[in-house]
Amino acid sequence: MPNLDTTTMLMILATFVIAGIVKGVTGMGLPTVAMGVLGLFMPPVSAAGLLILPSFITNIWQLLAGPDFRAIVKRLWPMMIAIALGTLIGIRLMTSGTGVWTTSALGLCLAAYAAYSLLARPISIPAGLEPKLSPVMGLATGLLTGGTGVFVVPAVPYIQSLGFSRDDLVQALGLSFTVSTVALAAGLASQNAFHVEHLSLSALAVLPALAGMWLGQKIRTIVSPATFRRWFLICLLILGAELFLRAFW
């Protein structure tokens, strides 16, 4: 296990509890929150290595628990392949860039996603455009995943625009996040930025993430998910702006 002081370890564990709560309430957001908060006190490439196992375990469950795995894969496989390829290409941006600028790019990505989610109206992609757009959206998502460790742009808005039912949408997002996580791990390993010893710390983050998800599911019965999501996005916007501006301070 990498040597970390007690304060940093506690901050990491607290981060995954918070990220798990967000996922428990909203059904998504664990990697996004984890990358954003961890980015406050470590380079994105280090943060990306930490979220591999928590992200994989929580998202593979979301994927396999859905109603029609085969149909989702059959529909989205071109996008998933493009995500994987884009991530393997984009990972060089994260591993070769300076910490300040990769952190700034991470912040810009988080802020853009939060602003879009808060302000944009839902859109619907015509079925005829889906075969052409899916690989493009997948490649863009992969490049941003590799460059920043954030999986959600533009994958989440795009998948939400495809007209899935609620349960199918959750499963489709689980597929996208799972593929992104595996591709990110492969990309980090290909650049010698993710080693077996890092798995121990990533594994340690799984329990607080699951505990946070459990708490989030309890909170969901008390607080309106829509209200929680709105305040979460506002906080994410502020966090993203702070990370982005670090390159200019």
Mean pLDDT: 91
Give start-end ranges of low-pLDDT stretches. none
| Separate helix tally | 12
Kindly state the number of beta strands.
0
Biggest beta sheet attributes: none
Question: What is the H-and-E element order?
Answer: HHHHHHHHHHHH
- Approximately how much helix is present in the residues? over 70%
- Strand residue percentage: under 5%
Radius of gyration, taken over Cα atoms and rounded to an integer in Å? 17 Å
Structural class: mainly alpha
Shape descriptor: globular
Distance linking N and C termini: 33 Å
Family: Belongs to the 4-toluene sulfonate uptake permease (TSUP) (TC 2.A.102) family.
InterPro entries: TM_pro_TauE-like, TSUP
Pfam family, one: TauE
Subcellular location: Cell membrane
